[in-house]
Amino acid sequence: xxxxxxxxxxxxxxxxxxxxxxxxxxxxxxxxxxxxxxxxxxxxxxxxxxxxxxxxxxxxxxxxxxxxxxxxxxxxxxxxxxxxxxxxxxxxxxxxxxxxxxxxxxxxxxxxxxxxxxxxxxxxxxxxxxxxxxxxxxxxxxxxxxxxxxxxxxxxxxxxxxxxxxxxxxxxxxxxxxxxxxxxxxxxxxxxxxxxxxxxxxxxxxxxxxxxxxxxxxxxxxxxxxxxxxxxxxxxxxxxxxxxxxxxxxxxxxxx
Length: 256
Ligand code: PGA
Hints:
single chain; 8-stranded parallel β-barrel; 8 strands; binds 2-phosphoglycolic acid; alpha/beta; 12 helices
């Protein structure tokens, strides 16, 4: 039985003060939905305040990215050693990092391995562009992204990971993939690639999220799919009402 996981990716929104006030408001409101794992991923600068405010609560903290080295001459970057004690999850391979920070399949794999080596749980993001989707390349491309991301990762480590399937054309566009389309890729490509790599038993335990224009109103559509275990959410995770709505919808859909 996979525990549903909803993660809010706040991207470059919220000062440390705003982020802390936000989570303080969230804590009592999310209490009834403990069957859903709840994660917030603030900008780096807000992580210490958010982490302190959430200590002793069930809400987990994640980082939006990480460097794969422990330290070094990497201006502007944050290492896994620096995140120790502050976060449990780290998103790696988000399409905005692949696009703006030159993340490649190789660096995403190195980041995932570094996160695991330092005791974090990576949320590994994959997904095709609109052009790839229209050219009918989605299955091959996403399958290859998953294989590349997991190179050198053991089955035991893979169980600690989460995959986020986020078609790039659906991110921040309001044009979400239907539940059926998301299920086809998540079940038919992501989980089956994981099964090729690790066997059905391990693949059946790894949680896979959908991401891309998820809102409280379409959450149920995803959560009612057999292979979709939650969502990675940008825009709709930035307001208290809609964040709570996402968690409530996920909880009701999974009956937990
Ligand atoms: P969105 O972003 O929910 O605003 O589409 C999703 C993401 O980038 O993780």
